[in-house]
From TrEMBL:
<dbReference type="GO" id="GO:0015087">
    <property type="term" value="F:cobalt ion transmembrane transporter activity"/>
</dbReference>
<dbReference type="GO" id="GO:0005886">
    <property type="term" value="C:plasma membrane"/>
</dbReference>
<dbReference type="GO" id="GO:0000287">
    <property type="term" value="F:magnesium ion binding"/>
</dbReference>
<dbReference type="InterPro" id="IPR002523">
    <property type="entry name" value="MgTranspt_CorA/ZnTranspt_ZntB"/>
</dbReference>
<protein>
    <submittedName>
        <fullName>Magnesium transporter CorA family protein</fullName>
    </submittedName>
</protein>
<dbReference type="Pfam" id="PF01544">
    <property type="entry name" value="CorA"/>
</dbReference>
<keyword id="KW-1003">Cell membrane</keyword>
<feature type="transmembrane region" description="Helical">
    <location>
        <begin position="269"/>
        <end position="287"/>
    </location>
</feature>
<keyword id="KW-0472">Membrane</keyword>
<keyword id="KW-0813">Transport</keyword>
<keyword id="KW-0812">Transmembrane</keyword>
<dbReference type="GO" id="GO:0050897">
    <property type="term" value="F:cobalt ion binding"/>
</dbReference>
<dbReference type="InterPro" id="IPR045863">
    <property type="entry name" value="CorA_TM1_TM2"/>
</dbReference>
<dbReference type="InterPro" id="IPR045861">
    <property type="entry name" value="CorA_cytoplasmic_dom"/>
</dbReference>
<dbReference type="GO" id="GO:0015095">
    <property type="term" value="F:magnesium ion transmembrane transporter activity"/>
</dbReference>
<comment type="similarity">
    <text>Belongs to the CorA metal ion transporter (MIT) (TC 1.A.35) family.</text>
</comment>
<feature type="transmembrane region" description="Helical">
    <location>
        <begin position="299"/>
        <end position="319"/>
    </location>
</feature>
Amino acid sequence: MRTPKTRCYRNGDLVDEGFPLADVSEHLADEGCVVWVDLCSPEEADLDLLAEELGLHALAVEDAMKLHQRPKLDRYSDHLFLSAYAITFSPETADVETSEIAAFITDRAFVTVHKDPDFNIDAVVARWDSSPDLASNGVAFLLHGLLDFLVDGYFEAVEALDEQVEELESQLFEPRSDQEAVQRRSFDLRKSLVLMRRVILPMREVVNTLLRRDVHLLPNDMAPYFQDVYDHVLRAMEWTESLRDLATSVLEANLAIQGNRLNVITKKVTGYAAIIAVPTAITGFYGQNVPYPGFSELGGFYSSIALIVGLSTLLYLLFKRNDWI
């Protein structure tokens, strides 16, 4: 387990940070203090210590240890348990990577738990430090900073995916494009969009639950900020849905284009086959071993050549005018 990150705010001012877990109860003894603790790959003993001090429910602690939860917000008698995901998108591989984070939310304590060491918790701290005027709102301020960071990550990933889908659209009608690569990329992007939908869709309910008045978590000053996060989640969700439909359309259009190209090729091959059938038929007729006009004469040879060239040219011009070849 990495060294826990800790902070203590008193009346909106940062008064202490980097203190050991054993001092959490000491800070909470001051009624004006709010404490934040971040645990990365915690040991069970450390989480049990916090659970005992903060009165955390056993089921919530179990979920935090196991993770791999669906984005959700569980309500207990005196605290909330949040499970959410951060999203990053790689344009090179078209893969979406997720980092799960859990949070215990009490009246004066905010505890975040994650197993991914690459989760950028420092960016969350920077988000808090950029809005010191909101720190007086306590735990609601800390929770908003975390959710705002996660939702902004959703927008960055969706925007990057949008650019990839647009690039894929431009490749559809290029005459020398690799259709197999386009089809594979379409599948990869659609798979990433489905994964993003699994993360973003439940977050809508999470933020909506926080906005409900019966949760008694949000001060009036923070309500507009959480409403803004909710609006962003809705926009990200709608954007993801439209991109998923668009990626499906690109995939279907690619298959239709391949079918059309195959029809064109078949049409041209059939046209040339019809032209080739003319000399085949004529040489077959003149290859008979029975007497006919011009048999074994030079005139018969010239007449057969004339028929081959004339009829083949006529068919070629006819097919060319009708765009069959």
